[in-house]
Give the backbone structure.
Amino acid sequence: MMLIVFIVLFMLIQPAPLHAYIDPGTGSMLVSFLTSMAVTIFFLAKNFMIRMKGASFRKRVKEEGSRKSLVIYSEGKQYWNVFEPVLQELASRDVPFWYYSSDPEDPGLSFKAPCCVTRFIGTGNATWRVLNFLEADTCLCTTPGLNVLQFKRSPEVQRYVHILHAVTDATLYRLFGLDYFDAVLLTGPYQQTQLWELESKRGTKPKELPVCGCTYLDVLAKKATTLTVEPEAKTLLLAPSWGENGLLRRFGLRLLHALAASSWHVIIRPHPQSKISEKDTLDTLMAALKDSPNIEWNFDTENLHAMARSRMLISDFSGIIFDFAFLFGRPVACPSYSFDPRPYDASDCSDEAWTFKTLRGIATTMEEKDFADIDSFLDAAATDLDRRDAIEKARNEAWAHAGESGKYVVDYLLSENQVR
């Protein structure tokens, strides 16, 4: 097909004897018409090829197996703590499910149960090709942005269910992150109000919003009871979110040079997305601090060991703040700055995000002027233990059904109109 297009273009541009005069205006119009026709033919041919490939892939999917009742999709090993309680509960009830992952090192691919089929589906475009032609009653995932960018609704999937992987606001996803899901599994009841408001303002289809708890916190809490790691003297964890509102972008070396010159040992644990979306920033910071003996970079899949070693945490609006406070009850400090909500769903909400209202109660505020005498600030913040009531209040609001989230997730998935 593409060959035919090029042959037509070639014939159109070949010189031929002219026996009539064409004025410049008419000639220009003719050239524009022929160019437009050629471009139209090109894109029609390209669209035809895409449709043919899609039809071929869909036919192969049908031939390979029947429709699936429940497909769980994981972006990678960093989400295993989110899905592990769900897989265990499904297996205990002998509910058939398929577990797909884009990471060959995902522990979920090694999960063994008679009712479970696991599959590595590739990365990049290979992932979207599988997901966008998926055939299933229900697809459960942590991936936001359904029907916004590459992740499209398959006409052969009845319901898309999103499971939150942080106890922070559901509106701190990038714009329209949850709009087109059929259900969102919440960690706490406070998240319902925000999503109801977005549905009302945007006119999107109402979603089911069951409160199921926080699966990954249940896993970490269980692991924490068996830890033998003690917090190290004057060790702090710096664990920011990513993007323009993250403290690595907001403060960069102004903060990091101050910490490198302090008497504290600093574990810097960038958000996993930083390695993808702001790699240049990360590379610059790491190069600038490579000779600082008290700076340690941490890229472990799980954050529990780094948290256990640390006497305090510095972060921005990352969900790790609540992991650290809920699991260990140790002090948290957050730099003061004006958060720009425009890239996030929170920009369309009338009330301030729960995360920021709550941080004022559980965290010590760090002003930029404190960088000049960072040791004094850190020493004082590390002894601020008078926030237990605020932490307990936040835990009750954001972490429902502690220790039982896997059961509540599966109860929902097996409820009416869900997996059968």
Q: What stands out?
A: Confidence is low (pLDDT under 50) at residues 53-65.
